[in-house]
Amino acid sequence: MPLIVDIHTHVYPPAYMQMLRARKTVPYVHDPSNNADPRLIILSSDDDPSIPPDQRGRPVDSSYWDISVKLAFMRQHGINISVISLANPWLDFIEPGEAQIWAERINDDLEATCAKVNKDADPENTRPIDQKETLFAMGALPLSAPDPAVVVNEIKRLKTLPNLRGVIMGTSGLGKGLDDAALDPVWGALQETDTLLFLHPHYGLPDEAFGGPDATSRYGHVLPLALGFPLETTIAVTRMLLSGVFDRFPGLKILLAHSGGTLPFLAGRIESCILHERKFVAAGGDVQGPRRSVWDVLKTNIYLDAVVYGKPGLEAALAASGSDRLLFGTDHPFFPPLDGKDGDWPSVTTNYKAINATFESSSDTVADVLGGNAARILNLK
C-alpha cells in the first residue's frame, strides 16, 4: 500500500470547544437539555430563531475534539499521516486584544497533541512512517489582532514548532478580503519563511443567493456547502490575482481546499476576462492589472487538495495545476455517515475511488496524490 497522507482534516481542541460553549453569538456551541450531542452553530444561517435550539447547526460528537477518535478513523481508512488543522471559523471572531493569546494557546495545543501521539506511537523513533499513525498540524493565525505584526510574529514562531507544517486561513483575511493591501506583511512573512497557507472557505455567499432563509429550512446545508464554499474560494483567489498579490509575492505557496472550488474549471474564463478588461493599464485603462496569468499561478503558487468527490472535478484540478500538486484529504470529521452504521465513510471512499479512476493507468501517480506529494511538499519526516 502507498503512503496515505490526509492534509484536510480538522480538530476542535478542548480549549476551543470550551470557548465556543461560553459564547451566545455565532459561532457558538449549544448543549441541548436532552443529553444529545452538542450543536455547533457555525454559519449565520444556522442561528435562525424559528429553528428549535436542539435542531440548529450540526451535532458535534467526540470526533471533533477527541484525538483518539481521529486515530481510530485513520486506522479504519488506512491513513498513515494526518495534518490536522483548526476548522472554520478559526480565530476570526476573537476580540483583537485576545487574538495573540488564543493563537499561541491553540497552536501550542496542536503541537503538544502531535508530539504526544507521535511519541506514543513510536517511543524510540525507529518504526517506518507508514507503519504508525503520525500527526502534523497547520497553525491558526491571530488575524483579528490590531496589528498585522502580531500575525507575522506568529508565522515566524510556528517555524520553531517541530510538528507544525503550515497555517490555515479563511477568505476574509484581516476583515476586508485577501486583496487587502494591509495583508502584504502577512504574505511577505509566509514567503520569507517558506510556509504553506491552507486556504479554506467559511463565509460563503449571502443567503439571498440561494433563495433567502427559507431555503435553509428546506434544503439544509446543501446550497451553502456545495455551492457557496467553492465559489467563495474562487472569488477570494481571483481577487488576490487581480490585485497583484502573486506579482508581488511570487514565492507564495497556497493549498486550496475542495480542489480550488470552481477555480480550475473557470480559469480560462477568468483569463479571458482579464485580457479583455479595459480598466487595466495594459488595455489603456487606469488600473494596474495582474502581470502573471492565472495558469502560471495555478502551476507555480497553487496546490489543490483532492476533496472533490468525483472524477470530472479531479480531472479539472489535474489540468489546471498538475498531478504533482494534488493532495489527498478527507475533511474529517465533517460529512459523517448518517445511517448510524460504523462502516467506512462515503465522503472518504468517494475520494479514494475518484483518485484511482482518474489515474488508473499510473499506480505511481496514484501513490503521489495519496501521500507522496504531501510528504514532499510538507517535508513529512
TrEMBL record:
Sorted alphabetically, which Pfam families does this protein's record hold? Amidohydro_2
Looking up InterPro entries in the UniProt record yields: ACMSD, Amidohydro-rel, Metal_Hydrolase
Q: Does the keyword Lyase apply?
A: yes
Q: Which residues form the Amidohydrolase-related domain?
A: 145-380
The alphabetized UniProt keywords are: Decarboxylase, Lyase
Domain of life here? Eukaryota
The UniProt family comment states: Belongs to the metallo-dependent hydrolases superfamily.
Which PANTHER family does the record match to this protein?
Answer: 2-AMINO-3-CARBOXYLMUCONATE-6-SEMIALDEHYDE DECARBOXYLASE (PTHR21240), ISO-OROTATE DECARBOXYLASE (EUROFUNG) (PTHR21240:SF28)
Q: What is this protein called?
A: Amidohydrolase-related domain-containing protein
What is the originating organism of this protein?
Aspergillus lucknowensis
Tell me the organism's taxonomic lineage.
Eukaryota, Fungi, Dikarya, Ascomycota, Pezizomycotina
